[in-house]
Amino acid sequence: MKFHMKDFRDDQSILLEEEIEAGKLDIDIGVMRFSDAILVKAQAWKIEQDLTIEAHIEADRQFTCSLCLEEFHNVFEKDITLHYDIKGLDSVTIDTDIRDELLLEHPIRVLCRPDCRGLCATCGANLNEGACKCKINHKV
Ligand SMILES: [Zn+2]
Ligand SMILES: [Zn+2]
Prior knowledge:
Blueprint: E1 2-4, E2 14-20, H1 22-25, E3 32-34, E4 38-47, E5 50-64, E6 71-85, E7 91-93, H2 95-104
Antiparallel strand pairs: 1-7, 2-4, 3-5, 4-5, 5-6
Bound molecules: zinc ion (2 copies).
């Protein structure tokens, strides 16, 4: 998403809406992937040499559970405020900051649900779907 300084008139703000392709942002990292485009709505104000941007980010994230390895989705939604020093600049691109924001929210360990039971260490069965036959062996 790019704001051009020449588009700003007086005190008026500029509103932009864009669907940024996940591939363009290079944000597919291991346990977290983005299947669809990242929706960004942003409003920008230019005051002398400062540009203030309020952006709303929305993206569908795809995860692999750390315990049971099942795939699941969740929606990322966040409002951010960005400031740029625009001295000598013709335009400002905010994609890198959007990318940073998406990566910042990335959890180290993701679970499909708080009480995920994971996989049986013996037979590999997904214990969320019910107890496996080894149950007797690892009873505590
Ligand atoms: Zn899980
Ligand atoms: Zn088992």
